[in-house]
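QA checklist item 7 of 12: single-chain prediction sanity check.
[x] sequence parsed
[x] length recorded as 282
[x] structure emitted
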Amino acid sequence: MIWQPQPGLTLLTFPGIPRELYLMWSETAIPFLCAQGWGNTRIYSRSMRFWGIPESTLAEKVAPFLHQTSPTVAPYAGGGEARLRLSVKAASETEANEILEPVQQEIQALCGLNYYGLDGDSLASVVGKLLQERSETVSVAESCTGGGLGQKITNISGSSQYFWGGVIAYNNQVKLQLLKVDPEILETQGAVSALVAEQMAVGIKTLLRTDWGLSVTGIAGPGGGTDTKPVGLVYVGIAGPQSLVSHREYRISVSQGRDWIRDVSASNALDLLRRYLLDASA
């Protein structure tokens, strides 16, 4: 309904059912507003997504952009990642892109590999595209994430083209028997250690015969931590082509609990693979 209860006041009312609202908005409201002289310009936005850099650090890096008015640049954070929303008023999408693109490119150059994608991209979707471009495959070995890493990968449609599968190695016997982790290293270093993470990655890569192997081992809590290995300590192992074997250590905040540690750990593993894939493509 479009009605005017008094001069100078127009009300547009819509049903609450989303599919009906969207259809009526596009077929009724937009033509009406344009006919009244509204909508000659629209707000166009794109969201740049970053991993591995805190929102505060990102804001410092791009500080000069935060004070400009066209386009506007606003920092956000959530789910462990930082984002920048670029917005501009323009008469068309083409005009908006001409304004937004140079700013996006400048910010990308400033932030390097911490930038990973736009809008609906995810770490899993970006990694999937990179693997497909290289015609390579990946498998995973998970301890503290309990299958969360594999879930993120398989959330992407078509991931069976590059994701062979994984092993949830919660018990040390699985690490020993399936992934062939050295029992002496497991005994002396502990399951949550850099060397065990590396051997898990090599083990799953070998077992499933993929180009890349990823592993996660850590202490998600709430118990199990010690002074030397506190809750939130996580190691991600990676094994790749040409005998590449490496790892990265993470200290994840415990303030948001066990599920948060597990989810961020899985994302950290994807991000590590992304960085290696980009480096190998350079």
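[x] summary fact logged: The chain has a mean pLDDT of 95.
[ ] second reviewer sign-off
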